Amino acid sequence: MALSWYLVVSALIFSIGAGGVLVRRNPLVILLCLELMLNAANLALIAFARMHGNADGQIFALIVLVVAACEVTVGLGLIVAIFRRRLPIDVDELRELQG
Amino acid sequence: MSPTTYGWLVLAFPLAGAIVNGLFYKRLGRGAAGWIATTAIGAAFISALGALVRLQHHAPDHRQLVSSLWDYAVTGDVDAKLSILVDPLSVYMILVVTGVSTLIHLYSVTYLKGDRGYARYFAYLNFFVFSMLVLVLAGNFLLLIVGWAFVGAASYLLISFWYRRETATKAGIKAFVINVVGDVGLVLGTFFILRHSGTLDFLATFKAVDGGAFATHHGALVAGCLLLLVGAFAKSAQIPLHTWLPDAMEGPTPVSALIHAATMVTAGVYLIARMHPLFEHASAAADVGAVVGCATLLVAGTIGLVMTDIKRVIAYSTMSQIGYMIMAVSAGGYAAGLFHLMTHAFFKALLFMAAGSLIGAMAGAQSLERMSGFRRSMPFTFGCFVVGGLALSGVPPFSGFFSKDEILAWVGGRGGWFVALYVVGYVGAFLTAVYTWRMIFRAFFGDPCPEARELERGHLAHAEVHTNPATGEEEDTDVGFPGPEHFIAERAAPMKIAMSVLAVLATVGGLIQVPHVDHVVTTFLEPTFADSKYAGVEPSNSLVNFGLVLGTVVALAGIALAYRIWVSRPGSAAAWQERFAPAYRLFASKWWFDELIDVAVVRPFAAFGTFAQRTFERVFVEGVLVDGTTSVVRAGSAAVRALQTGFLRYYAALLLLGGAAVILYFLIASS
User: How many domains does chain A divide into?
Assistant: First the structure.
């Protein structure tokens, strides 16, 4: 199998994730789409690792998984905090930081 | 010890006294401050005597000694050092300054006893003397300017010593501002001289001038000397920078004695004498000095005739006498001018002390209108006043007679247009006798006033309510106001001692330089003025003898006139006022100098200030600079703020677009 197939799949998943981040307003979905983007990157990393025949890419992928787990923890924590304060679960409504 | 070591000691004692009194007054017992200050100045006087003795051990042409403590800034064109010059002139000055100041301090020990600011007063007083000593001992222009400015600052502190009295603080500010005008003149004059001489050191400057440093820059030398004269005029209260001196009477009476007799006003005379090599090359500047001195002595004498405040009469007489000195040293009669400086210091300090005693007897009132008949109740003060008055009006053999006549003989001996100054000088001498004795006759003769009558019965008058003698405003006797107690010389030993010493000096002080008999002052000062073009020049014998006779006649005539007006025909003064009404108005309004300065300087400056505030400040500073800056910042921040929408997805899109653009760039660039 050629490398390009993996990359095409990776690019597709990344695009779907990016599109989801941009168009969805529910923070939960945005977090999921972020995960999609990270895993698309993981796929590309592992594909390249396979092509080069060394383990560097796989290690990167493992680190990305760890970072993703942390990020989800924080993100979900925030979402729960927002929910608890009875604020709307909608990123467009949460705009106190505007200039 | 060498003379210069003594010179440093002369500086060290008053400074130490000022520091001890200024910093530790709370730990010292009440009353200690006065004795500490007096001891400090006394020690300085003894050091000055030491310098005198040691200096006389040197050969006459080696009596100009420079000692430098450290170099402040020595580069190619500037040699700023902390150096003093000990030569006969500076030793002469420090002797007069410390000697008379010691007596004034002694007098103040009692005179200011009732005042809450006792320690502060003596700290200032010591600082004042220290400043004056820095001024006269300075070996270069830099230290001279430092001393010059210190004296101005100290005079401000002392004139507005009673700082809760509005008239006093105003007088202090006036003195300070006019003195700063003089400081500016002195500094600019120094620049003019430094530019071509290339050195700040006095002796090196004089050498450069004699060596022709200004041969092609004569205009710069004249300009420099004229600017130095501005400094001298401001410090010595010469026309038109004299208006601060009468107002300076707001200070305590011993301060007036100090300012008028020993320190401050003599600084201008000293400056011209010290700079004589420059002034002799710039004869135009010297002539200006002589004419202004002469004008001042006449104007001040006429104003003295009509003033009713006893201290102001003496103040105008100081101005007048300083005018004689300025005229003398500008005309080249250095020894004559400095001789008069010394005798004047004696009798003027004496007169002020006696006036202080009189004011004490009047419970603070200073107006001659209210004083009369103190002759029997205050015999000692009366005696001192008479001695001072005889010396001031120049009756032989009192000290003022010899010194004033020496000045006039010298000026007359110059010939040419100086004869006009000579004549005016004798007119001034006549006026001096009249106004001095007018003061004495009004205060001591005639029917005793209530205060004098009280005193004859042994009660010193005490004011129920303390008032400001200038305005009549009521004052309490808290700190910042004059103290509640008054002292007279008859009942205070320190005051009596100080006045007795001065009375003796004012009587016999002139005998050290009697024409045809001895010339101690001239001989002593000779090494300093050896390079003068007037060295060895003396007025002719006939002129001197004529002057001695004329001086006596003029002085006695003045006293006789005063006696006729104010004693033998009381009330005739009003008739004289009537007859010379325009002149009286001119004199009583002090020749309108205050008004003239107000119109010529103060108002234009105030108008310019208002104009600048309305146009420059409002329009340019506020409109363009301040408002312009804020509006630029505001517009910039509004533009940046518009980017911060707060939409998370908007930021994410920007991030993605930016990232994509960067990647695209690298892809295109690498292919």
Answer: 1
